[in-house]
Amino acid sequence: MTKNVHVLSWIDEMAAMTQPDKIVWIDGTEEQAEALRAEACSTGELTKLNPELLPNCYLHRTAVNDVARVEGRTYICTPTKEEAGNINNWMEPSEMYAKLKKLYTGSMKGRTMYVIPYSMGVVGSDFAKYGIELTDSIYVVLNMLIMTRVGVNVLEALGDSADYIKGLHARADIDEENRYITHFPQDNTIMSVNSGYGGNVLLGKKCFALRIASYLGRKEGWMAEHMLILGVEYPNGDIKYVTAAFPSACGKTNLAMLIPPKMLADKGYKVWCVGDDIAWLRVNKEDGKLYAVNPENGFFGVAPGTNEKSNPNALHTCMRDTIFTNVVHNTENNTVWWEGLDNNPPKPGNAIDWKGNPWDCTKYDKKDKSTCGAHPNSRFTALAKNCPCISSEFNSLKGVPVSAIVFGGRRAKTAPLVYQSFNWQHGAFVGSIMASETTAAASGAVGVVRRDPMAMRPFVGYNMGDYFQHWLDMGKNIPNPPAIFHVNWFRTDDEGHFIWPGFGDNLRVLLWILDRCEGKVDAVETAIGYVPNAEDINIEGLSDVTLDTIKELLSVDTASWKEDVENIKEFYALIGDHVPATMYEELAALEKRLG
Ligand code: GTP
Ligand code: SPV
Ligand code: MN
User: Fold this and answer.
1) Does 452 map to a domain?
2) Residues 159, 263: one domain?
3) Which atom in ligand 1 lies closest to the alpha carbon of residue 379?
4) pLDDT tens-digit series, residues 83-99
């Protein structure tokens, strides 16, 4: 499919090492994809679901030990440890290559190596970057066909150039002890072995579009961020764009596809989804604004909790052409189910859980994750074009102009519903001190507060301190920068219930944010930033939320912020001496304002 010597010689080298029985090039045609689906069904790798109810949908179960990203086994391999920084795992490249070589050698014997030429971003656009993933997993091929733009046209666009990201993935033995997700930013190379799950193996996503791309972005003057992109359409037809960075499983897909509450929908407000996970941002030379594209082509969304009320758009998106991973199989009608879909789980006898065992829904106990039918990090892989609210700018070559950048996380107490930073520099600081309770999206304990700067802690491909500096530098290069905000949908009352209704009602907060961007509304200056006057958050039509509730949600508790400052100091110390002096100045200023 190509005469590119850089590509061909690399594939030869990888094939000599992994020793597949055959090599198949993925051309992006439906015929080839269909043949692969059929093959995967014949081996049990996929199960074809009910074609009437879920056309072109499939179910896949991963190994029980392989259900989430593995941050502990994810490495940035730069020549020096300092380049990777203290937040990343690091290994010297030649040492890691040697270790990997042992694991890859002969790993594809008796198997097929698939060659996937793919683009992150619209092929041929200024934003686009190309990659080739070699994998021995049909599941990976079929997911990549949804998540990225795959095909011959990528090779045509690449031409004779060596400017592409090399990705090698081998399932090997799915051995946890020898699982490695490794990045060699200086070599444009990603190598993944012994996993078959999501972000560990769909190398275009977190590995390329965040870790490698963040490294390239710093070098080339742009940004790769863990952000959704959405457009808010006003009744007069104007559309304003917002990007938002929340840690994994903290609400990006939900916010990106939100349905306005009735009262706002009736007035003509609409929300359009440009992206739900990753944004690439560049300064536009013509108007000096920051523009965003979503480099992906589909959604790898969290299934549990997705339902007709919380996120109908996501639900409709995954009703066709979708791969479900680690959800419940309803064998009565050959469909799928997950916790929080509806109140009708398949009956015992008709239900197979994510591990492939019979599942008894009557034994389900909310507090005991081991009784779940679907894994808490079970996912759907669905095409963006099937999303009812996909933006008309989804395939835009120049991206969308960003009015506001929003940071957010799960904080039971400290962070208020929303506040605005004083300026870009302070906004970058606000991003750098983000924290959130951990979720099931990564292996490890769930519900522990950890600092997660810009929601990028697991995804920065270089030193976190330098990444902060890159944020500060970008601000100086954007003549008309977006305003920067922080939100928290997850404040709880003394019984642990969420106070804010969230989901569609989050639009009420977005409208305040956009009003601030336009200078249409005042705010209260506090120690942490500008907080709304409670009256300015529209609560019309909300039965459980009063003005007092909003006041409670917006309150800034000085004592818990002072505690947070101590924790931030520890975290900055952990990042080490690359933390810019400017960030320490901002921290000192915050401490002073807190009194
Ligand atoms: P990744 O794909 O891992 O990057 O996750 P994400 O940020 O896209 O998270 P997603 O939108 O899938 O949400 C994850 C979980 O958060 C789901 O269980 C949702 O039900 C829950 N959630 C999302 N938005 C809200 C909200 O506004 N309020 C509350 N209480 N929960 C929410
Ligand atoms: C995340 O964990 O932030 C995800 C899922 O979006 S994964 O692709 O597995 O990283
Ligand atoms: Mn994500």
Assistant:
1) yes
2) no
3) 2
4) 999 999 999 999 999 99
